[in-house]
Amino acid sequence: MLFRELRQPLLRYLICLGLTADEAQDTVQESFLRLHKHLVSGGSQENIRGWLFRVAHNQARNRQDRYDRRFAAPLDDRCDWMVDEATPERAVLEKEKFNQLRRAIRLLTECERECLLLRAGGLRYREIAEVLNISISTVGDTVDRAIRKLAERCNV
Amino acid sequence: MCEASEILMAWLDGELEESGAAEMEQHLRECAPCREQAGAYRRAAEAFGAYCDAYCERSLSAKARPQVRPWLPIAKWVAGIAAAVVAFFLLLLGAPMSQSPARTAAAVEVAAPAGTQGLQRGAGTILAGESTTSPSPEEAAVEITIPADAIFPPGAVPPGVAFSADVMIAPDGSAQEIRLRPQLAEFQRRPTQ
């Protein structure tokens, strides 16, 4: 049950960090394996989601030197796809909106982007703080700053 | 822009304590700019989530979809022509050899294990003295059907899968050439009873 509930958000987080689908799936599997070991060996059962995301995040970080370029710009490429099936007028609008969003995302700092991604994964500020090893108040400030940037630049 | 806007996002995310949240709700009732800003934040957060979803979906489906290889049709033609040339030379070389009367072609068919058939393990049934797969008319073909579970461990061959093997038998009785071909659609072509 835990697996079903957390697998998809975790996979999405890793892919948005810039891992390929294969790498992300491997990392998800490895993370759940470690979670299993953690629980079997009597580890804390509190905040499983935060624990899992932190383990996955650190694994993704370890791949970072190899995938630095993609990691630094994970959400930037491939933006023409979302509107394939929309009607032409709608497609133009949607495409423009997504391009705006893409440009805005590119201007976020790494920490801002990670905070937003973790937040989108359903994590509370307390859990995000644990994953990124920063304070809860820093998470609050960072999420606020990041969403402000997106809202100002995108006018959505 | 009023000070309250600094904790708007925390309020939207349900991160404020109860008293703080109540204060914020009171403030929003009175402050139109903050209400507007809260709406903009919410839409931005939703758009970001949608962007992530779309990006993620794309990454996963790009993996599932095989890459388009534009050279593939050309490669097929090249392979086809090459195969034809090779077959032509093989025919030239092989024609005198096929005159040998002692050569025998046998088609051995391994039938799928089917519940309705009463074939015993290890039993072989000789079906017919002739085979349509005989390489040349003057060669006598023997067709033998062997249940799959006589050869493979139980369950190794799923129902509906059969193999057809062509075996060339030399004058001294040794098997010279074995070609095993899986058959999916035609395995019920002949009754195996």
The domain tally of chain A reads 2
What CATH architecture label of the largest domain in chain A applies? Orthogonal Bundle
β-sheet strand percentage of chain B: 15-25%
Helix content of chain A: over 70%
Amount of helix of chain B: 25-40%
Could you explain how this protein is built, in words?
- The complex is a heterodimer of chains A (156) and B (193).
- By secondary structure, chain A is mainly α.
- Chain A is 72% helix and 0% strand.
- The longest helix of chain A is centred in the N-terminal third of the chain and has 20 residues, at 21-40.
- With 193 residues, chain B is α+β, with helices and mostly antiparallel strands.
- Chain B has a 5-stranded mixed beta sheet with strand order 2-3-1-4-5, with no helix packed on it.
- Chain B is elongated and about 105 Å long.
- Chain A binds chain B through residues 11-12, 15-16, 20-22, 24, 74-75, 78, 81-82, 97-98, 101-102, 105, 116-117, 119-120, 124-125, 140, 143-144, 147-148, 150-151, 154, 156, and chain B through 6-10, 13, 15, 37, 40-41, 43-45, 47-49, 51-56, 58-60, 62-63.
Please specify the SSE layout and strand pairing:
The complex is a heterodimer of chains A (156) and B (193).
Chain A: H1 2-17, H2 21-40, H3 48-62, H4 68-72, H5 88-106, H6 110-120, H7 125-132, H8 136-154
Chain B: H1 8-12, H2 18-30, H3 32-64, H4 72-97, E1 104-111, E2 125-128, E3 141-147, E4 162-169, E5 175-183
Parallel strand pairs in B: 1-3
Antiparallel strand pairs in B: 1-4, 2-3, 4-5
Give the gist of this structure.
Helix content of chain A is 72%, strand content 0%.
List its traits.
heterodimer, A: 156 residues, mainly alpha, Rna Polymerase Sigma Factor, Chain: A, Arc Repressor Mutant, subunit A, 2 domains, globular, B: 193 residues, alpha+beta, five-stranded mixed sheet, 5 strands, elongated
